[in-house]
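tl;dr need the bound structure. longer version: we got a ligand (2-(butylsulfanyl)adenosine) that a collaborator sent over and nobodys looked at where it sits. i said id run it. heres the input, straight from their email, havent touched it
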Amino acid sequence: MSPAKQVSLSKAIKRAAELREQLDYHNYRYYVLDDPEIPDAEYDRLFRELQTLEGKFPALVTADSPTQRVGGAPLKAFGTVRHEAPMLSLDNAFSEEDLRNFDRRARAAVEAEQIYYQAEPKLDGLAVSLLYESGVLVRGATRGDGFSGEDITQNARTLRTIPLRLRGRGYPRVLEVRGEVYMPKMGFAQLNQRQAEQGEKIFANPRNAAAGSLRQLDPRITASRPLEMMCYGVGKFEDAGLAARHSEILERLQEWGLRISPERAVLEGVEALLKYYQRLGGKRDSLPYEIDGVVYKVDRIDLQQRLGFVARAPRWALAYKFPAQEEMTRVLDIGVQVGRTGALTPVARLKPILVGGATVANATLHNEDEVHRKDVRVGDTVVVRRAGDVIPEVVSVVLEQRPAHTKVFHLPKQCPVCGSEVIRMEGESAARCSAGLVCGAQRKEAIRHYASRRAMDIEGLGEKLIEQLVDKDIVHDVSDLYRLDLATLMALERMGEKSAQNFLVAIGASKSTTLNRFLFALGIREVGEATAHTLASHFGELEAVMEADEEALQKVPDVGPVVAAQIQAFFHEPHNHEVIKKLVEAGVHWPAVPRKTSAAPLMGKTFVLTGTLAGMSRDEAKQHLQSLGAKVSGSVSGKTDYVVVGAEAGSKLDKARALGVATLDEKDFLKLIGH
Ligand code: IVH
């Protein structure tokens, strides 16, 4: 080798080692400490530098290099791993009494007044064992039946929350770490969306998705799935002790680069255990991953040893479950709802059942294909799921319990509301009533949408009132709202003079609006608040939007062919022109919109605001951003460019981190908007 090459090789060796160390460190800050030091873009830059270097000098590649997480060919089958110390399960508690009994028995057995427990969330994923030898990850295995599981080493290596090499020092030469691999809620939703778009299998819940993703023979598939791991204990360890308390062991694991639950707490006495259960239960929906209860463990290892095991569960630990998010019940009927756009949605009418703490009597079946895919029939026993504030849905049918003579479900050929023909367009999953605004259901929905807070904001126009106005043929389209008078209103049920007057004032006030609200209020398909806003600022006036052809529409940021076609179709409809004309004649008006010039440096960028800014209100911040051409969205997604983070930021920040979206603090933000 030439001297020049030798120099560059020795430099490369040094630089590669530096980069690996930095990447490991930043990975640790991000995943284990949840406290990143550098922006993701910088991490990516370091990562690419290492990749390039390793590409140039393949001899530099080490098995524990952060670039080597996905490697190796797909397997034919998984090998079997025998767990030297069996992976046990936990006894369950379902009531406060169960928990009190557990504590009483534990105290009696060790003859103690009070016991310190470690409390942790019970993560809803699958148990995994990681074996480290001299600090290097040598094997990953699933729990299997507790005695032997599958060798998933290649797949475990693809998770960035699993260190390929332990950090620091003092770890035993052989250390088996145990924990839960799970899929965060956001990642689960995105995965299912992707699966649906590609016509692939939809996962019933994040746990199934995690299990399905980890048990892939091709590690590249696992690498593409948003899996994470959190550790909650150890199996065997050799040649060094660990610590006298479970809580200390977890902290050691954290020092060595393994992720442990930030929700963990050491508590004394059963009252504190109950309080923790309430507190964590209250947080359940806002956590970025699913949990199904709390696990309590006697903290002192010597007491754990004295308590020992019964059958396959330790006597020193207990899982106190939260109300289940999935339950079984019977389908009494399958109804059909007609939405604002005429889409027919099949809805299972259920024998009411308590799921996740709320009674569920209806669950969406999404569309006809979904009903057929799950083959849901009237009379079936089904699994119903309700997670957080998500609409309850039917997950699956319990086929063994299907009664005789059930019938396959079909959507009606006529709209159940107006009797018009139902049409399903090629390539669309929804079947729709073809009648448009002639259909009462669609009219009601259109009026409800028009009056909604973010559209024309007409206070007092609730469901019951809309129902009467449409059913009694008083209001045919939204322009009729502005022709209502006191006498007509007072003739309606539950409408006194005072409320009728208030309502008329609210209708009058709604006439003064903005172009973006008005465009949004029209209920054009695919045109949400954000698109209405960009349309308004791009075209400046209503006539220009109405006259724009598809080509002109597609010049608007974020308006693609589908949205452009919908806007065109809407304004092509003479009836819609008529309604708009009547609205303007009735006095609906808005101030001129300043046209966007090229001085829109943030054009095409999407921002999300979270937390409280010290220097300005959220609305002000939003207006600043919009005036610079940016779009401001309410939720973080893969399309978000920046999340502006104020004080006490909540779950949006977590989402941003989970998705690797760039964040700005108040200082950066002010600088960006030139304040
Ligand atoms: S400890 C001997 N801690 O629950 C103790 N398990 O029902 C063994 N799990 O298979 C488990 N979160 O998959 C423990 N913080 C936690 C847990 C947890 C979830 C799962 C684990 C285990 C099952 C036992």
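gonna send this back to them w/ a short note. The longest strand covers residues 326-338.
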